[in-house]
């Protein structure tokens, strides 16, 4: 904060200068100081670096994994800058698209009516040993559209690029280039990440939880990579703001070369992370709260990457009895986290 005393000391009378903040016209020192202060405030206070594209009322963010939500609500796709006119103009399209989704949901409910309650049977132990279930394929455009991609350049925080396309074999190819070059804006400290994330939601942006996986012991993937180490993330944000960054992670080490690899990752080995950071206090992933799955590359290695994914599913191994692979501890009744 400038004061009248420091202003007279710091900014003497200047009649002609090439500095960007000063006028070339002759003026008094007090006027120069006021102009300097105003221009400094404008310079530091106005930045459109994080300006984001507007999306639909029930649309989704173009950047799938970032807890820097663009609004206080923390709802992906909610834009507080929408005017009433824009909202009214968006209503017909919203009613059409979300209404169609709701109609499909109602049809599926009636189709699934059966004496056999599959989930109930699985809950009481009817999932066989070595039973596998493929949940997500990529052989059609509609299935591929459920997955969104993002990287640091989408947030104007880096120079990485990525893409997700269908192959002629009915698989998904996640590829691009990782650049760890840091944007020289004085704000970004690290860069170099790209991800693909499932954005499968019900009508009116309601979450779909992966609760059907609770009776299986492993996550199953068929992938063909480039030798780089990726990360599998099970996202479980809830309604409270302190859970928006919650996820459970496990590395995916690819072999490289022409051969497919079948990865079976126990759910007991997923560790708790918040905004990608490993937490001291660990606990097992709760699939009842998990609403999305993502694959992230952030290995701090510059260069091209390519990961081909055939399917993602779940697998059951009845001999796997491990509940949680990592050390946990019991807090006392009175502790820093509360009761």
TrEMBL record:
Record-level GO BP terms = mitochondrial electron transport, NADH to ubiquinone; mitochondrial respiratory chain complex I assembly
**Which Pfam family name is an example for this entry?**
CIA30
The question of whether Chaperone is a record keyword is answered with yes
**Keywords annotated in UniProt:** Chaperone, Mitochondrion
Entry GO terms, CC:
mitochondrion
Subcellular locations according to the entry: Mitochondrion
Q: What is its main location?
A: mitochondrion
Annotated GO MF terms: unfolded protein binding
Q: Does the keyword Heme apply?
A: no
Q: Which family does it belong to?
A: Belongs to the CIA30 family.
Listed name of the protein: Uncharacterized protein
Organism in which the protein naturally occurs: Caenorhabditis remanei (Caenorhabditis vulgaris)
């Amino acid at each position: 904060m400038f004061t009248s005393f420091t202003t007279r000391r710091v900014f003497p009378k200047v009649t002609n200068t090439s500095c960007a903040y000063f006028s070339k016209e002759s003026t008094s020192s007090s006027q120069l100081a006021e102009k300097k202060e105003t221009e400094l405030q404008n310079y530091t206070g106005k930045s459109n670096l994080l300006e984001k594209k507007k999306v639909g009322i029930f649309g989704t963010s173009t950047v799938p994994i970032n807890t820097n939500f663009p609004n206080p609500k923390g709802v992906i796709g909610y834009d507080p800058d929408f005017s009433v006119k824009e909202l009214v103009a968006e209503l017909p399209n919203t009613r059409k698209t979300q209404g169609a989704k709701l109609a499909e949901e109602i049809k599926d409910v009636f189709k699934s009516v059966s004496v056999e309650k599959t989930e109930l049977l699985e809950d009481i132990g009817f999932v066989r040993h070595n039973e596998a279930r493929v949940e997500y394929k990529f052989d059609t455009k509609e299935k591929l559209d459920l997955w969104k991609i993002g990287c640091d350049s989408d947030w104007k925080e880096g120079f990485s690029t990525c893409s997700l396309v269908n192959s002629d074999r009915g698989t998904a190819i996640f590829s691009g280039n990782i650049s760890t070059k840091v944007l020289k804006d004085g704000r970004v400290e690290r860069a170099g990440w790209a991800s693909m994330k499932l954005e499968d939601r019900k009508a009116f942006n309601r979450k779909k939880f992966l609760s059907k996986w609770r009776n299986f012991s492993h996550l199953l993937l068929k992938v063909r990579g480039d030798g780089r180490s990726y990360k599998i993330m099970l996202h479980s944000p809830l309604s409270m703001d302190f859970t928006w960054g919650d996820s459970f992670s496990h590395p995916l080490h690819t072999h490289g070369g022409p051969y497919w690899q079948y990865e079976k990752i126990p759910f007991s080995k997923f560790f708790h992370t918040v905004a990608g950071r490993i937490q001291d206090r660990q606990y097992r992933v709760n699939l009842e709260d998990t609403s999305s799955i993502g694959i992230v590359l952030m290995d701090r290695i510059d260069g091209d990457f390519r990961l081909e994914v055939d399917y993602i599913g779940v697998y059951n191994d009845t001999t796997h009895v491990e509940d949680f692979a990592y050390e946990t501890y019991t807090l006392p009744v009175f502790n820093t986290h509360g009761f």
